[in-house]
Amino acid sequence: ESGKKGKTLQKKIVKLVKKANIPLLGPNCLGVIRPSLRLNASFAPATPGSGEIAFISQSGALIDSVIDMSLLENFGFSYIISYGNEADLSLCDFLLWLKRDQKTKVIILYLEGVKDGKRFIKTAKEVSRVKPILALKAGKTKAGIKAAASHTAALAGSPEIYSAAFRKANIIEVETLQELFDIAKTLAWQPRCANGVGIVTNGGGFGVLITDYCQKLGIKLPRLEKETISKIKNSKAWHPAITLNNPLDILGDALSERYKIAIEAMIRQENIRGLIVIQTLQIMTDVKKNVKIIIEEKKKWPQKPIISVILKGKLSQDAIRLLEKNKIPNFPDLKRAALAMRALIK
Q: Which of 341, 330, 257, 328 is nearest to 299 (CA)?
């Protein structure tokens, strides 16, 4: 597919397969994987777990690394599609297919350029009404645009044009690979909500930091209402040093009972539409017991998203696995949690 001879050969192949009514993927691609059927028609070294995220990528090598990461990170895929040069089947064809696919809840894209901008915007706008689409666009600098052109013969263009196109098509644009998968996992596992988030923490410093992130991202933190304050104050777990604000700092000596009361009281408040629960591992913290409380509350309030923040470590790894097994995303970083919650706000 490289050089004049390659282009001529590619055109001949496309003509032949179209005449025979055979769809062509690529060339210059990794292939396609459908984990639920154990189908791995690719060069990938492993098959990821089955899940609700469809990943469409112009880069095959990037897919290989993502699959390896997913095997440790507790999330799976409905499809992984590497589409390369789009000699026949295009990105838009795959978007329309995934719109109808019942296993797919979220679609994520890694792209360097698009061949037909008008069709892409029209198709993505249609699909995003049904399922959220996230995009990581590479080639935003002069050097990056040059690298993209040599990589997949993609039509590049200015990053501002792409960002405007994404907004028009209701695509969520992200800046990093980590952000792409953080938000995808959260959208696949948790419901969307209106703006208004409650925060429970046993570490005051963490509460201050996440307040800054939330304000920068436009996330509203409603004040605690009289009824919420009364439920906390009149409980057995009440401590006079607790300041009844949002974020609600339940102090470093918080036992599981205090977590339970704080979570229950805040999630019942009508204008708190979602919850971020932060745990710092202190001597009194029973992280596994606290996680079971979060899971119980999520079952009671399925319409309200809950996101957890526990820094990954030896003492917390089993609890984090339990959370994510129950489709409650955990982030080892406050900013990542705030970005994920922002993506849930309609």
A: 328
Cα–Cα distance for residue pair 180/167, rounded to 1 Å: 16
C-alpha to C-alpha distances, 159 to 59, 149, 163, 184, nearest whole angstrom: 18, 14, 6, 22
Judge contact between 144 and 59, C-beta under 8 A: no
Contact 198, 222 (CB under 8 A): yes
Place of tokens 């507790």: 74
Beta carbons of 117 and 86 less than 8 angstroms apart: no
As given in the structure block, the two tokens for residue 315 are 């003492």
Distance between alpha carbon 62 and the CA centroid of its chain, in Å?
A: 17
pLDDT digits (tens, 9 = 90+) for 264-296: 999 999 999 999 999 999 999 999 999 999 999
DSSP 313: -
Contact 190, 122 (CB under 8 A): no
Which strands, in side-by-side order, build the sheet including 77-82?
39-42, 31-34, 77-82, 50-57, 106-111, 133-137, 172-174
**Dihedral sign, Cα of residue 96, residue 101, residue 105, residue 109:** negative
Mean pLDDT by 10 residues, the chain (346 residues): 87 96 93 96 94 94 91 90 93 97 97 91 97 91 54 60 93 95 97 98 96 98 97 92 95 96 97 98 94 98 98 89 96 97 97
